[in-house]
Amino acid sequence: MKWIYIAIIVAATTVGEVMQAAGMRRHGEIRDFRPGALRRAVAVLSRNAFVIGSVVAMAVSFFAYLGLLTIADLSFAVPVTAVTYVLETILAKYYLKEHVNWLRWAGATLVICGVALVSM
Amino acid sequence: MSSESSRLRVKTWICATVVVLANVFGNFFLKKGMPADLPTPWSYITVLFHPLVALGVFLLILWLMSRMTLLSWADLSYVLPVTAIGYVLVALAGHLLLAEQIPFKRWAGILLIVGGVALVSLGTPPRSHKPESGA
User: Fold this and answer.
1) Any alpha helices (H) in chain B, and if so which ranges?
2) Burial of A41 by CB count in 10 Å (0-12 exposed, 13-18 middle, 19+ buried)?
3) Which of A85, A109, B21, B122 is most buried when burial is the number of CB atoms within 10 A of its CB?
4) CA distance B19 to B22
5) What was the ipTM of the complex prediction?
6) CA-based nearest residue in chain B for residue A18
7) pTM (2 decimals)?
8) What is the pLDDT of residues A53-93, one digit of tens each?
């Protein structure tokens, strides 16, 4: 059961977070942090298909995460879901077309090794 | 251009700090308030009204919104490693509160994550794509 929860969380989080990044990229930089401007930004974003998709995917991930927390330690549940990290960096390069230079790959590799050690 | 990049860097650090803290404390309160099991689908809904779980959910909503704000100008491949420090902090929070020993391997992992975060966040600008229309 534990691994079913983890598989759902990893798949839903990866899809959700990449869609979130794509949606926010399309929206552009948020520069104005006054309440009225933020409300307008939320209104615009609620019509952004990528943002809607990402919220749905992350809701699925959230409820699977609630299920996982009932049977697993916090210090296991959080690092193990960091597998999404690897998938998302790859998708950032090939789907979002970000320029992932060697420093980012090196940093990503260190973080993955670190997460693996923490979760062992 | 240098004042533009330093403006973006300061804004990025402030926003990333909110993202990380909201995530760490959101997860912590969620686990703290979570019962030993959720027997029925309905219990997944009712548990959301437990005060500690509700606080956790509120912080995770704050996390989602601050992360979206950060992603409106920063690359995903930048945001991922910079906010990965949250994995370490949340593991530490769990362990300290459960009064467990943190073995050498876990400290080594923490150091690797911090090294990776430093490499990415100090070595590259937050944004590699051209800015689009601001809002």
Assistant:
1) 2-33, 41-46, 51-71, 76-83, 85-97, 104-123
2) buried
3) A85
4) 5
5) 0.73
6) B76
7) 0.77
8) 999 999 999 999 988 988 887 777 777 777 777 788 888 88
